[in-house]
Amino acid sequence: MSKLKKILLIIVTILVIALCLMIIKDYYKNYKNVAYSKELTKQNVVKDLQSNNQIPVLMYHEIDDSKGINLMKVNKEAFKQQMKYLKDNKYNTLTIDEFYDCIVNNKKVPSKSVLITFDDGYEDDYKNVYPILKKYNFHATMFIITGYLDKGTVYLKSNEVKEMSDNGIDIEGHTVSHPYLDKLTYNNQLKQLEESKIKLENVCKKTVRFIAYPYGAYNKDTINAEKKLGYIMGFTTNGKWANLSKGVYALNRIYIFPQYDLNNFKERLDNPNYSQVVHPIKSIEALYYSVRSWY
Ligand SMILES: [Zn+2]
User: Fold this and answer.
1) What is the mean pLDDT of the chain?
2) 3-state secondary structure labels for all residues of the chain
3) What is the pLDDT of residues 64-79, one digit of tens each?
4) Do 44 and 160 fall into the same domain?
5) Do 253 and 141 sit in the same domain of this protein?
6) GO CC annotation: what is one (predicted)?
7) What's the CA-to-centroid distance between 226 and ligand 1, angstroms?
8) Which of 82, 98, 176, 224 could be stapled to 147 by a disulfide with Cβ–Cβ 3.0 to 4.6 Å?
């Protein structure tokens, strides 16, 4: 073999080896991509299944017949009617843990399931709401502002909270002083979330793992603080049915305003995309608290 032929053979061999290496590398890269996309598809399917679990979460504040400025006060008779409607139509009222298991762990619940919630911790939760819930054997969740607990006649007493907690009502967090959390530093948010959690756990002797944000306001720091403290789910005031579309720390709730009649109420229970009446929700709530702070 001439010297030239030998050199050509070496070059061709090197080229063949290089080509083989490129093919192997490409194949491996492809294989990894396919495996990755398979994994991704699997995750998406799980996420979609979870997102399909939608539940109406009713949000109440005060339930009282007394007069005075309160734009979110549902009168007792209307509330009674609404609860009777749930009973007569065989709705299943969830505990907060059952709700979590359905939304996050995909656990099956009866199709007519609902989570009933009350914000702030008013005295009428005990005086007006609790007897009706007891009568129908209903579960509900109350989000309590701990800084107002045992203060004056408008808000709940610790012993009332404990009694309700011992009898099927879940007691969860709503901060210490009802601030706009998204306006606070991370450390101040942490303080609000931690102090209120400890207070409620001392009163009820149960772990507090859920929170409703005052005015529905939260940001990334809120979620980081929640994760650090062991809160596993957060509720906003954004309307529509609750699902995981915006994550486990941004669950929707449905305002039940005093002006709603039974048809408005039914629509919100029947239809995840119920017609959204335009309410200046945040300004109503802000006005309400500024008036409230006067007495
Ligand atoms: Zn509130």
Assistant:
1) 84
2) CCHHHHHHHHHHHHHHHHHHHHHHHHHHHHHHHHHHHHHHHHHHHHHHHHHHCCECEEEECCECCCCCCCCCCECHHHHHHHHHHHHHCCCEECCHHHHHHHHCCCCCCCCCEEEEEEEECEHHHHHHHHHHHHHHCCCEEEEECHHHCCCCCCECCHHHHHHHHHCCEEEEECCCCCCCHHHCCHHHHHHHHHHHHHHHHHHHCCCCCEEECHHHCCCHHHHHHHHHHCCCEEECCCCCCECCCCCCCCECCEECCCCCCHHHHHHHHHCCCCCCCCCCHHHHHHHHHHHHCCC
3) 887 665 678 899 999 9
4) no
5) yes
6) extracellular region
7) 17
8) 176
Report the pLDDT value the prediction gives residue 282, as an integer from 0 to 100.
Answer: 47
- CA of 239 from ligand 1 middle (Å) equals 15
Distance 269 CA to ligand 1 centre (A): 22
* Cα(178) to centroid(ligand 1), Å: 6
State the distance from the centre of ligand 1 to the C-alpha of 121, rounded, in angstroms. 9
pLDDT at position 46: 38
Please report the pLDDT score of residue 10 as a whole number: 73
The predicted model gives 246-251 an average pLDDT of 94
Give the domain extent around 82: 55-292
Q: Are residues 12 and 103 in the same domain?
A: no
- As for how many domains the chain has, the answer is 2
What's the 237 CA to ligand 1 centre distance in angstroms?
A: 10
Give residue 236 CA to ligand 1 midpoint distance, Å: 10
Question: How many angstroms does the Cα of residue 129 sit away from the middle of ligand 1?
Answer: 17
Q: Is the pLDDT of residue 115 over 60?
A: yes
12 and 64 together in one domain: no
Q: What is the Å distance from ligand 1's center to 206 Cα?
A: 21
Distance 175 CA to ligand 1 centre (A): 9
